[in-house]
Amino acid sequence: MALSGFINLLKPPGMSSHDVVGFVRKVLKEKRVGHAGTLDPAAAGVLPIAVGQATRLIEYLEITDKAYRAEISLGVSTDSGDDTGEVLARQDFVMPAASVLEAALAKFRGPIRQVPPAHSAIKIGGRKACDLIRQGKDVDIPARDVIIHRLELLSCWTGSFRIEVECSKGTYIRSLCMDIGEALGIPALMSFLVRRRVGGLVLEDSLTLEEFAAQGAEAVLAPEPFLHHLPRYDLRSDRMNAFLNGLATTDRFYQGQAGPLRVYAGDIFLGIGGYSAKDQSIRPHKVVRGAERN
Fold it and tell me: Does residue 76 sit in the same domain as residue 185?
């Protein structure tokens, strides 16, 4: 049976997310490999990898909340928002007291608007912003709405402090660090980042590249347990083949949400569907099982 599922990998600093995908392809000898939620090369932490048919589910894993631990260094800012970029400003400062840091962090809890860093993989007109900058082009990235569910001060010392963040999809921690510095009136950058969680994939359960290489296919996890942020829909068993063949099923009594749904026939996970109010039916979006043969 072809491999299909997610791998909870621990990306080390110094590798790009694309490099990790290439590593997985070589170990598993599988072409269909992708990742959810790019991590910068200097960052470390949870990098969800999808294999086989599960690559079709990446978009649903990416919409989950994420958790990070970051270190903010004060007194210097760069064009990238981290310590790999060109220095824009330096400033002498007196290290703020913990109470001052706490007051600044309080401004960023809940719904906020932020501008993603120009040195990022965000697409502008179909091109990565970082690639456009390398070509000397001006990049104008619009602000976006994100949610900071939790933002805590973990520790502080002369010149730096450490925070823990739980946030919605689309949050850029580099931008958050720079904005916190602005709230303090001091240039700031992100000097360290580790991603601790992507949805149900947590750092404590993640595999190093060496551990993954030793386990190989045994490291591939069934995808559905990590999609529980999506509501479940139970399809009538007699409509399973219809769903697997891309056909809609009428449900005039559906009262759930309009977004993506995990669709099951009994205990069998079939894929992702959605409700169409127009014809009052459940329609398949991404099927992850082959049609049953009679």
Answer: yes
Residue 293: pLDDT band (50, 70, 90) is very low
Residue 269 lies in a domain: yes
Taking 80 as the threshold, does the pLDDT of residue 151 lie above it? yes
CA angle, 169 then 56 then 113, to 5°: 15
Q: Beta-strand (E) ranges in 129-255?
A: 144-157, 160-167, 188-198, 201-202, 232-234, 249-250
At residue 31, the 3 state secondary structure works out as coil
Dihedral of alpha carbons 245, 247, 253, 256, sign: positive
- Band of pLDDT at residue 54, cut at 50, 70 and 90: very high
Together in a domain, 158 and 95: yes
Residue 294 lies in a domain: no
Q: And the tokens for 62?
A: 């990416």
Is the separation of the CB atoms in 243 and 287 below 8 Å? yes
What amino acid positions are annotated as catalytic residues? 40
CA distance 38 to 90: 29
* Same-domain status, 138 and 57: no
**Averaged over 29-55, what is the pLDDT?**
94
Q: How many domains does the chain have?
A: 3
Q: What is the pTM of this model?
A: 0.88
Average pLDDT over residues 232-257: 93
State whether 240 and 217 are in the same domain.
no
Give the chain's end-to-end CA distance (angstroms, integer). 19
Which helix (H) or strand (E) covers residue 180, if one does?
helix 173-184
Phi/psi of residue 71, nearest 5 degrees: -115, 130
